[in-house]
């Protein structure tokens, strides 16, 4: 196995295989190593799971959110398919018992010719199946930003169902370097909208992946959002 340090201080991801044949479903196996080099075998739940695996292609054209199974020795396993050739990055959200919340990352590769896709233009709406998802709120660099998502179908608000302890799950990545941002759902009594708090470090483009559940099925809506400088908002307000 190769060791790959992530964003958590001294913890690391230890993966068995970082080159995966594109379009082929494979058993992806990895361990989370503590600073002493031993596999972590005890976790606190985060959003109702011990570990979340997020996999994106480097150009953010693909997105997967998986929940691997843990063996007693600390090895995680999950069926993973990289849908097309290209470079990928896998992120794990986890919290070792007695330790801080961590995000650890590792680069993966699906060999073959690939073409980088341009990031879609910024938009406040996204379509998935026959649903329209609308984003309200703005990202302000260096400030706490609140984002609200509402889902409609044929012009009618759609009630959302619980998913991972909230009415939705949001992953936010900086487009330039795939920096993984901390996002947390905000408590709300409404069932037809989901709110999140997020802080972005710089004024540039971000890709947001919102997952929501209606009639028991998980769907993913993707948005490109341009974060602005704090002064931009002040000038607009004046």
Spell out the blueprint of helices and strands:
Blueprint: E1 2-5, E2 12-15, E3 26-33, E4 51-57, E5 63-66, E6 69-70, E7 75-80, E8 86-94, E9 102-110, E10 125-128, E11 131-136, E12 144-153, E13 156-157, E14 169-174, E15 183-186, E16 193-199, E17 205-214, E18 217-226, H1 230-237
Antiparallel strand pairs: 1-2, 2-3, 3-7, 4-5, 4-8, 6-7, 8-9, 10-11, 11-12, 12-13, 12-16, 14-17, 15-16, 17-18
Task: Let me know the average pLDDT.
Answer: 91
Q: How much strand content do the residues show?
A: over 45%
Distance N to C terminus: 57 Å
Describe the main β-sheet briefly.
6 strands, antiparallel
The helix-strand sequence is EEEEEEEEEEEEEEEEEEH
Shape: globular
The parts where pLDDT drops under 50 for at least 5 residues are 1-8, 233-238
SS content category: mainly beta
Helix content: under 10%
Number of helices: 1
Radius of gyration: 18 Å
Q: What's the count of strands?
A: 18
What can you tell me about this protein's structure?
The chain has one helix spanning 230-237, and strands spanning 2-5, 12-15, 26-33, 51-57, 63-66, 69-70, 75-80, 86-94, 102-110, 125-128, 131-136, 144-153, 156-157, 169-174, 183-186, 193-199, 205-214, 217-226. The protein is mainly beta. The strands form four sheets. Strands 10, 11, 12, 13, 15 and 16 form a six-stranded antiparallel beta sheet that branches. A five-stranded antiparallel beta sheet has the order 1-2-3-7-6, with no helix packed on it. Strand 11 and strand 12 form a beta hairpin. The radius of gyration is 18 Å and the shape is globular. The chain starts with a strand and ends with a helix.
